[in-house]
From TrEMBL:
CDD domains for the chain: 4HBT
Keywords from the UniProt entry: Hydrolase
GO molecular function: hydrolase activity
Classification via InterPro entries: 4-hydroxybenzoyl-CoA_TE, HotDog_dom_sf, YbgC/YbaW
A Pfam family annotated for this UniProt entry: 4HBT_2
Record's keyword annotation contains Hydrolase: yes
Family: Belongs to the 4-hydroxybenzoyl-CoA thioesterase family.
EC number: 3.1.2.-
Name of this protein: Thioesterase family protein
Amino acid sequence: MQEFFEKYAINTKVNVVWGEMDALGHVNNVSYFRYFETARIDFLKQTGLLSILSEPSHSPVLRDTYAQYKRPVTFPDTLYIGSYITDIKEDRFTMRYEALSESQQAICTTGYATVVMFNMKTGQKAPIPEDMLTILKQYEMQSKGSE
């Protein structure tokens, strides 16, 4: 686990709760999208991007989101979601996630979300603001592929 925490400067602790399990006895697939959402917002908060995004005219919007399930997770467990950035373009970037199961000591799920900046006044895509771009680049890593 130490290697995981050294690799991901930004990580989010998520406790698995009983109600997230499905009839087959493991965490339901939709729960991982909630975990990733929690990690995404925590990333914005930990990096200071949340305060930059308080400007109401520009907002990040999800274009798509994806998860790859590697190992089933059951209650009780604690997941640590490592977050990083790839594929920065003028108006978008990709946020990637790796979920580490504490009880299994292994990566159980990976995923990503493509995030597009929008001008909320015009309803059109917009360039990533420079101050936001500077922070995103600090957390940019090479993608491992597996899409």
